[in-house]
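Researcher: Next entry: Cytochrome P450 (Sulfitobacter porphyrae).
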Amino acid sequence: MSNAPLFSLDPASFAADPYPILARMRHEAPIAYVPELDATLLTRRDDIHREEKRIEVFSSRQPDGLMTRLMGENMMRKDGADHQAERRALFPALSPRTVAQHWAPVFEASARRILADLAPRGSCDLVTDYAMPVSASALIAITGLAEMSCTEMDRVSQHMIDGCANYTGDAGVEARCHAATALIDSHIDRAFASPAPMSALAVQQEAGLPMDSLRANIKLVISGGQNEPRDAIAGIAWALLTHPDQLQRIRRGQNSWQEAFAEYARWISPIGMSPRIVAREDQVGAVRFDPGDRVFLMFSSAGRDEAHFDRPEDFDITRDTAAAIPFGAGPHFCAGAAAARCLITQVALPLLFESLPGLRLTGPVPFRGWAFRGPTAMPVAW
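Model: Predicted structure:
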């Protein structure tokens, strides 16, 4: 087992707000074993950026890991040639060109329809009434699971990521995750005979992927493609509404929606970490790792590393975010990054502020989570 120093934390406090604890870890124990999570956490940006790429040591393949046991062995839980083969099979559905030419008009049509229904109401919960259906509609199109409702998509994604972060072994969380994956499989079965063109289902079929890989990768796309864009859309809107001077910079053309997204993903990472398993004995600095050790690469901590970011706890869309790694930095760089950027920065945010004049917060906006983090409610009016 790793000889990393011990760092104990309260899981409830960590879920409520991980950033003060991560700041302490960067300062006191940047590589530390946390018994409550049964994992060794890497919290400094340079360590994460370097070690993530050493897949021969810090492997993504985790046959006994939560994601594999609950969702199947998807491409994110494979390394080397196996990972690249499945990534290439999925790429035609998620490439920047496909996103720009095929998906962007679909995203815009859905967002405009949702906003047209919302506008007469004068108020809503921006998480559940806008960010959720915008994200879900996009994901239904990309996956090809055309009969799934937005509510179903949001629910199965949440229950899967809850399952993948269920390090305390809650039986109810695991049961909900199993129900979610069964529902997804039923939708895959219904759509399999005539998948929508360019969908993740269609391109994997065309590539001839085995059915278990196809199913697992669809679940991966859902687990990484619903909650994170949903949370980023609502979270960025909240950040700009609570920093009106920065919203005005975007409206005046001094900064872009893309810069707001990049800064928000640095500041409050929708995906806070990536798990790895140590494949062979190795050492990082003075810390030794043994085969089988569980390691968490804390992307959320990397985004607030004082060695790279001045005033890292502040939201500032004018800063240089090049050192941030919210999508990862190695061979497992998020395959859906182009789709997420398009949906959030070209469609969801500009249309939101264009369509609902006078948009304002009307109540508190609670956040929760450390492995995945986002607002749980966002009351607004316009």
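Model: Note for the record: The radius of gyration is 20 Å.
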